[in-house]
Design goal:
With about 160 residues, the chain is α+β, with helices and mostly antiparallel strands. The protein has five helices and seven strands; from the N terminus they run ββββαααβαβαβ. It binds magnesium ion.
Length: about 160
């Protein structure tokens, strides 16, 4: 039976951090703040997969108080989510996500993000959808104070 899950994440944009989204370093004067590499896109996808499994969220598996995850590359979290699917003898059907960022332009990096995410999940890139939108200059995202991502995942479970 196919199960679906939803995920959402947001991180603040600050000076002095690298901007990493979907495992890709994007040239920008600000980056996302967080305990790990703060890859909001990978975190949202991770939560979507965990949600499809009926599991707790990413913060439960990888607490931001644990020094092991300080500065961690978020593909580690995606790999763990994929491993949990395997343990249940399931398979990820597809994931789809939207990045919400006012700046910088995300579109030029989408293909590279798809490849990184597909690789971390052990999926064909065609099973990974990534889209991007601005927030039309409204709210905290529109003021470039943060970047958000939302995702869904479908997982076939026996
Ligand atoms: Mg996060």
């Amino acid at each position: 039976m196919v199960h679906v899950g939803i995920g959402y994440d947001v991180h603040a944009l600050v000076e002095g951090r690298k901007l990493i989204l979907g495992g890709v370093e994007i040239p920008h004067h600000k980056g996302l703040d967080g305990h790990s590499d703060a890859d909001a896109l990978m975190h949202a996808i991770c939560d979507a997969i965990l949600g499809a499994l009926g599991e707790a969220d990413i913060g439960h598996f990888f607490p931001n108080t644990d020094p092991r995850w300080k500065g961690a590359a978020s593909r580690v979290f995606l790999r763990e989510a994929a491993r949990l699917v395997e343990l249940r003898r399931g398979g990820i059907v597809n994931v789809d996500a939207t990045v919400i960022a006012q700046e910088p332009k995300i579109f030029p990096h989408i293909q590279a993000m798809k490849l990184r995410i597909a690789e971390a999940l052990g999926l064909a890139p065609e099973r990974v959808g990534i889209k991007a939108t601005t927030n039309e200059r409204m709210g905290f995202i529109g003021r470039e104070e943060g970047i958000a991502a939302m995702a869904v995942a479908s997982v076939d479970l026996p």
